Amino acid sequence: MKFRRSSFLKLICLLILMSSSPASAHKIHVSVTQFEYNKSNQRVEIALRVFSDDLENALSKHAGRAIKLIPSDPAKSRELGDLVVSYLADSFELKNKTGKVVRLNWDGMEGQTDVHWIYLEARAPSGLEGFQLRNRIFFDLFDDQVNIVNTRHGSKQLGVMFEAKDGFKPIL
To answer: Which residues pair with 88 in a beta bridge?
Structure first.
C-alpha cells in the first residue's frame, strides 16, 4: 500500500495525538480511516489508525479474555490478525453500489507507541462510486467515540464522520 507512510496520514495522526494525553489515558476517543482507490489493481486500500489501548480493550471484550498487542511469535500474529478481522466484521462494514457487503481482506498491522495502523483491502472493480460504510469501531466502549473516514478516488476526496447514532454513509 503506497499510503502507509503518507505524510497526510502522519499529519492527521500527529494532530490527534497532540490533542490527547499520554498512552496510559487519553481524553479523546477517535479513529481515523483512509480509503484510497488503486485503479491499477482495482482494489480499495484501507488504513485504520486507532489508539492501541482502545484496540486492546475492544479485542479483549470481543474475545472474552485479555488480549495484548505485542505478539511474540508468528502464530500469535496470525491469531491476532484473525481476532482483529472478527472484531471489524461486527463494527466496520462496507457495501458496494448494489448494497452487497464487500469482503475486507487482512493486509497487516503496524504498532507504534500509542497507536496501531490496521491495513485492509477489498476488490472494487468499478471504483468506489456508490460505496457505503458503517463504522462503529469502539462504539461499544465509549459514548463519545468519533470515527473519521477520508476517501481519495482519483481527483475526488471526501471526509465523513461517524457517531454512535449513524448507520451507513456514502464514502465518496
So the answer is: none
For residue 118, which of 84, 67, 83 has the smallest C-alpha distance?
Answer: 84
Q: What digits encode the pLDDT tens for the residues 5-20?
A: 444 444 454 454 444 4
**CA dist., res. 53 & res. 26, Å (int):** 9
Measured in whole angstroms, the distance separating CA 93 from the mean position of its chain's CA atoms is 11
Measured between alpha carbons, how far is residue 140 from residues 13, 40, 93, 136, 161 in Å? Answer: 22, 37, 15, 8, 17
Query: Is residue 91 within 8 Å of residue 139, measured between CB atoms?
Result: yes
Helix (H) or strand (E) holding 114: none
Contacts of residue 93, defined as CB under 8 A and 6 or more positions apart, other chains included, come to 101, 133, 134, 168
- Cell readout for 21 is 494525553
- Whether the CA torsion 172, 27, 136, 12 is positive or negative: it is positive
pTM beyond 0.90? no
The rounded distance, in Å, linking the Cα atoms of 33 and 160 is 10
- List beta partners, residue 110: 117
Distances in whole angstroms, Cα of residue 127 to Cα of each of 119, 122, 130, 156: 19, 11, 9, 12
